[in-house]
Amino acid sequence: MNTLRIDSDRLGARIGELAQIGALEGGGVCRLALTEDDRKGRDLVCRWMQELGLEISVDRIGNVVGIRKGDEQGDPVMTGSHIDTVATGGAYDGNLGVLAGLEVVQTLNDTGISTKRPIAVAFFTNEEGARFAPDMMGSGVHQGALDLDEMLAVEGIDGKTVNDQLSAIGYAGDAAVGGFRAHSYVELHIEQGPVLEQEDLLIGAVTGVQGISWTEYTISGTSNHAGTTPMQFRHDPGYVAAQISVEARRLAAEIGKGQVATIGQINLNPNLINVIPRQAVITVDLRNIDEALLQQAEQKLQSYIDEIATAEGVQVESRTLARFEPVAFDPEMIELVEQTAQALGFSCRQMPSGAGHDAQMFAPNCPTSMIFIPSRGGISHNIREYTEPEQLAAGANLLLQVMLHRST
Ligand code: HGY
Ligand code: MN
Ligand code: MN
Predict the structure, then answer these.
(1) Could you tell me the distance, in angstroms and rounded to a whole number, from the CA of residue 356 to the centre of ligand 1?
(2) In this structure, are residues 358 and 254 in contact, taking their beta carbons and an 8 Å threshold?
(3) What is the 79 CA–ligand 2 centroid distance (Å)?
(4) Which ligand is nearest to the CA of 135?
(5) 123-177: pLDDT as tens digits
């Protein structure tokens, strides 16, 4: 194993500087996709890419790719992630993968090491899907899994479209989408779960990503007076939304085998204490590593909703916001991550990802895997998200070695 190592202080300083953009009072980061803060974050990372001599391209959905030339032409060995966050995000989710990629480049620049293959570092538009669904939007378009025009037309939770907001922040690029191919893709990311910490391990060699199903249900009933309307005459969307929430939890327990269900949004209209709601809008996030079980969860929930809607005399319209099947990463890449971790003396285990990632969009098109490092308390999508500097450094050093191996 060579003695090349990243500069962990420099990596930490970049993570800290980027986290200032969209910083929340009391900690954490809010940098929702295609907002003014996203623009500022993009500008900063592009400046760093420029300073590192990368050749920068911006594509039609705002993905940004910086390429370090290789001795030979050809598909690059690629890394990257996202710099958009959820509204109550942390400094590491996504950001780490992009900045560790820049740190790999700077380490190679500083030591004058050239690689046979080009190296690419990217950040992808709207990985989170929190403002504009689906998640992994930019990487999905970049790799041809999602349609550009459909995604540009997506309206966000604030009624604005991707297309408008992309132009508003000045990142509607002209590079084509869908055809970019990497030689291989490896992404460093915090685990965002409790496994590595609980097993006192440093590295996760990620085997794949579980299936994701996001559905929005709009429930329409009869608004009425809270005091004068006898219970048997009610058609209450709020009550049906509450039942869906309870059933989703029960269903996850019944199916088991890693099935998860989350009600992230419930909006009532008019949302007043003494008015039976006219409408309720609820979102359901179902996930499972097993596609058949995920379909079972979807079907069982839908039948339950049909039943209670009839009983309550309300109408329910459903809209699919995201649907991605489980993805398996490349066995050779997984083994490379694992063996390189062991060669570096890092404890390591293979594990699937509970969260969606840009890497899953590359998996059908090139050998792909991911590197996980621990999340303190297994916490993420929460302002208390934290990972130790030594763990960040280990992840970035492993990324350096894996990318060196693939590009020389
Ligand atoms: O939802 C997810 O799994 C990711 O954070 N976009
Ligand atoms: Mn992420
Ligand atoms: Mn996330």
Answers:
(1) 4
(2) no
(3) 13
(4) 1
(5) 999 999 999 999 999 999 999 999 999 999 999 999 999 999 999 999 999 999 9
CA distances from 332 to 6, 336, 337, 402, 406 (A): 24, 6, 9, 12, 11
Mind listing the domains of the chain with CATH numbers? 8-209+327-407 (3.40.630.10), 211-324 (3.30.70.360)
Per-residue pLDDT band at 2 (split at 50, 70, 90):
confident
Nearest Cα residue to 124 out of 71, 73, 185, 183: 185
88, 127, 289, 360: residue to mutate for ligand 1 pocket, most atoms within 8 A of CB: 127
Q: What phi, psi does 39 have (nearest 5°)?
A: -60, -45
The ligand 1 atom at the shortest distance from the C-alpha of residue 354 is 3
| Other Cβ atoms within 10 Å of 34 Cβ, number | 26
Q: List the one residue out of 236, 265, 263 whose CA is nearest residue 252.
A: 263
CA distances from 120 to 15, 82, 102, 348, 391 (A): 19, 14, 9, 26, 23
Residue 1's pLDDT band (cuts 50, 70, 90)? confident
> CB neighbours (10 Å) of residue 350?
16
Residue whose CA is at the smallest distance from ligand 1 atom 4: 356
- Ligand 1 atom with the smallest distance to the CA of 127 is 6
